[in-house]
């Protein structure tokens, strides 16, 4: 009986779908998000400018090091795009605060960095949306620009 129970539990563990197994890769426009009313409501205040890798930036006066932010949010009851926009704003807010702490006025060379895999685009960011959670990770450099 005990052996049957253990075998049954192992079979269920192997065959049962994981609740967060859905992993849809979503690309969304970066500048549209940064300029959105939702960004302002989330605390993106314009004191720090954001530039994706490959995007034209003003002259860099100084650099203050790299950082990585990895944020997750509840995706239940939201579309993939909605949860991805929300979690990306959380990641940008963290980068904004990191820039302010370092005396930077810009975050440059931003790349999506989900599971340490870089996705570079001069226009879009990458998000991964699951059945329960959505996540965005950014790797970027803090800088002072003209």
Roughly how many Å is the radius of gyration?
19 Å
Q: Into which percent range does the helicity of residues fall?
A: 25-40%
The DSSP helix count reads 4
What do the pLDDT scores average to?
89
Amino-to-carboxy terminus distance: 74 Å
Low-confidence stretches: 4-21
Instruction: Summarize the helix and strand pattern as letters.
Output: HEHHEEHEEE
Can you tell me about this structure?
This protein is an alpha+beta fold and 146 residues long. The protein is built from 4 helices and 6 strands. Strands 1, 2, 3, 4, 5 and 6 form a 6-stranded mixed beta sheet that branches. It is globular, with a radius of gyration of 19 Å. The chain starts with a helix and ends with a strand. 31% of the residues are buried. Mean pLDDT is 89; it is low at 4-21.
């Amino acid at each position: 009986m005990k052996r049957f129970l253990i075998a049954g539990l192992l079979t269920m563990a192997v065959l049962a779908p994981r609740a967060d197994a859905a992993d849809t890769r979503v690309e969304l426009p970066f500048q549209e998000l940064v300029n959105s009313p939702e960004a302002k409501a989330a605390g993106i205040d314009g004191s720090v400018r954001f530039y994706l890798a490959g995007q034209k930036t003003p002259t860099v006066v100084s650099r203050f090091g790299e950082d990585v932010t990895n944020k997750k949010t509840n995706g239940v009851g939201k579309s993939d795009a909605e949860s991805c926009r929300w979690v990306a704003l959380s990641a940008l807010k963290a980068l904004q605060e990191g820039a302010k702490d370092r005396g930077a006025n810009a975050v440059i060379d931003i790349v999506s960095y989900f599971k340490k895999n870089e996705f570079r685009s001069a226009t879009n960011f990458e998000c991964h949306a699951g059945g329960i959670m959505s996540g965005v990770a950014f790797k970027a450099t803090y800088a002072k620009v003209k």
